[in-house]
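FAQ
Q: What does a multi-component entry look like?
A: The components come first, one per line:
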Amino acid sequence: MTAPVKPVAPAVAAAPTGADDASAVGAAGALDVSVKRVRLEQLRQLAHSKSFLIGSVILLWWVVCAIFGPMFVPYNATATSILSTNLSPSAAHWFGTNNVGEDVFSRVIVGARDILEIAPLATLLGTVLGTTIGLAQGYLRGVFDMVVGRIVDAALSLPTVIVAFIFVVAVGPSTLTLVMVIGFVFSLIIARTVRTAVLQERELDYLAAARLRDESVPHVMFVEILPNVLGPIIVEFTVRLGYAIFTIATLSFLGFGVQLPTPDWGADVASNYQYLAAGYWWETLFPALAIASLVIAINLIGDSIEAVLIQ
Amino acid sequence: MFVYVLKRIGLALITLVLLSMIIFFAGQVLPGNAGRAILGPFASQQAVMTLDHKLGVDRPLVVQYWSWISGLVQGRLGTSYQFQAPVSSFLFPALGRSLKLAAFAFVIVVPLSILGGIIAALNRGRGVDRFISTTSLSLSTVPEFVSGVVLIVLFAIDLKVLPVTASAPPSSPFLTQLRYLILPAIPLVFILFGYIARMARAGTIEALDSDYVRTATLKGLPRWVVIRRHVLRNSLLPTITVIATQTGYLIGGLVVVERLFTYPGIGTLILTAADDKDFPMLEAGVLFIGIVYLTATLIADILYTVLNPRIRLGSAE
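Then the predicted structure of the entire assembly, as tokens:
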């Protein structure tokens, strides 16, 4: 990995799968109400989860920085100055300055933007694509499932970072490339999870009923099955979002992600860590801590969503 | 079981062929023109075409793929664009150094994480369990270069107890070399710890809840005998699989750690190859990472079957 694939528990869909029950036709209204009640209860549980709250506060802080950061930072994040390079943290420069004299605090705040733009987009692309592939694999089975399954296995026999890396090297780094490449690699991983969830639904009566009604394949896939496997898909989304941040930061560190002088945490670590040995720790440590806080926040949120949805 | 092993090897080979196609596609087809990529935008069209011909990239794709893959099978990995020397003379020494670092990380992480998982399971639901689970999960989500930087600042710069780089001076004794590898190994240990400990914990809890453990306890065996003879034997089995699947990940992590600690392994090799647009080197390096991963999962699968009496005896009947 295969970036380590977190084991996702099998789908225990929160929504009752009672649509197959003939008598449920008349009770459709009541069913809707109970689904709503379950969702409300889940939200209530989330609001009481400590790790969800802590994660959300940290994430919210970085989202605010990403959107409004440039308005409130003390310095222009890309203003270099030969006269004030490698200054240690002080009242004027809270996080010090780096080897070209940029203000590290300003760069850390503004640096939230690119990663918070690319990661959610890539994860969304991966989830939509992966859900479609996984639904088709699990429902259609046969040759299609086998061929796609082999390709997924092959692509996943390399670490995600390396798969993303060879494609970025091939087409050149840009925001669009990063979104496409990471989205595509993630879609393979997500397809695997969705496929497993669909296989468990496959033998249930409501699908037999849909087949007897002669529903079209897309209708069965997206209208009948999808709502019942939504739980694991939501969990996958949050887990992958964490890995997207991990992957993008790593690619930037390796020099194949966000390009300087755009403020970016991974790229800032890469351009400054060689000065660590000289004792200039602040220009590397603060962007590194920013990455750590963001990935941990997203994983705290993901874990609490998983705990609520799959119990 | 023999049939199963053969089938498993066959599947791994198919995966390997597909993987080689993906790598060939990314390395040879996507970048477009290799000659242009090497010579840059200002070279004359004539020079680009001459270089293309020399590199053999003006032939049809199928021919190129075939000559690459048949060379690989015969042990010829191609010629590096950058060094004008066989790729293998760079690849294998680098791979060896990477495996040394990886093995060191493994030797630290496997006993540690299994112990952590078992301790967490035996204290299920208590503070110790929550502490181990939360800490290990948080550590495993942080990119290696991030934890690496924090470690360097702490141990190499603040406390000055460990070196900043990973490469010991040439011909230094074995223990000195290991000392240089401690800091680079820890970020890898952090990431792996969470996954292995999680599996060991789940396996132990499953074994603890089983009927045979209850029977063993009820017939009056001391607790540590129950744990050693009945719980551990059963809980460690699924852990083996996780350890092997993480091998592939570990090599991915090496790329990052090697760059941070300037260690001349396979990661540094493919990064340098990517910077130089040295596609034969890059493709061979990435393919070997895939081969190491596939071999590791294959061994794990077979080991799992051999060690699991239910499968071993079941198919013997």
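Q: Is there any commentary attached?
A: Sometimes. For this entry: Chain B has a mean pLDDT of 80.
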